[in-house]
Amino acid sequence: MQSELRKKLLDAFTNNKDEYLSGQAIADLLGCSRTAVWKHMENLRKEGFELEAVRRKGYRIISTAEKVTADEIRFGLKTKTLGKHIYYEETVDSTQKIAHRLSNEEAVEGTIVVAEEQSSGRGRMDRKWYAPKYTGVWLSIILRPNLPPHKAPQLTLIAAVAVVQAIEEVTGLQPEIKWPNDVLLNGKKITGILTEMQSDADRIVSIIMGIGINVNQKPEDYPNELKEVATSLSIEKGEKVSRAELIQVLLLKLENLYTIYLEKGFYPIKLLWEGYAISIGKNIIARTLTGSIEGKALGIKDDGVLIIEDQSGKTHHVYSADIEINS
Fold first, then answer.
1. What is the pTM of this model?
2. Which of 169, 170, 162, 218 has the alpha carbon at shortest distance from 191?
3. Domain boundaries 2-63, CATH class
4. Which residue numbers delimit the DNA-binding region (predicted)?
């Protein structure tokens, strides 16, 4: 009950941003006394919200805290589905593990799991993901598309486009995508995406989409082995970036792209992905588990498979590989 009242309160502030809400209006909305309204405001202050209270005008939120709590994300969130149910923890071993559990417990589509720190975050090919506290976006999203399992890889590409669009809008920076789903800035990794599927034989039961974005790390925060290959938004922009705003914009971009995909298919997403891709048209080396393929990256198929043409003119379809760009 308490969380539902908090949702109503933050939705009201979101819909009346920069305007005052009177104590009586809030009391009527929540169905509580003016004294209870004051307690709600004090709880928001304790969480890090900066509030202004003006006699005969009411309350308004001036700024929020540095954390990415459920309340921080809800204040300003404009989605219809994604992020309407939020599971927040300070420290977790992996947001993916929690999202899998919630999915098995019938969590609704759009439920997100967000944490300030992951101790056992994972990337593609089960690599460890470096996720220090209060610096990045460590997020898992539960989707339940009515699709056959073979279309699941397309959702990873949708996520990559959504991340790029969100970073562009929030920071003005221009990231690029390295196949299949690494997002880069100035050649260094900024984002990792891990999509896992729960399915029956003929349909997807759920997609657990994990997204890790390096936001406010400083150069000295990275271990030596990562300094040459990873960066953060704040390093590239030269100033701190609001993690809560980035999550809000990311969820909105993802929701919009997901809706387009379900209504019109993958082709519009494919065009967007290829427009952001750093490797298309370039000579690359694709290192797979069975060997390396060198040639020109022609594009991707509708299932997200990379198409490479080697020097003899033969085309190769690459399902999983590490990519190195030659030129």
1. 0.82
2. 162
3. mainly alpha
4. 23-42
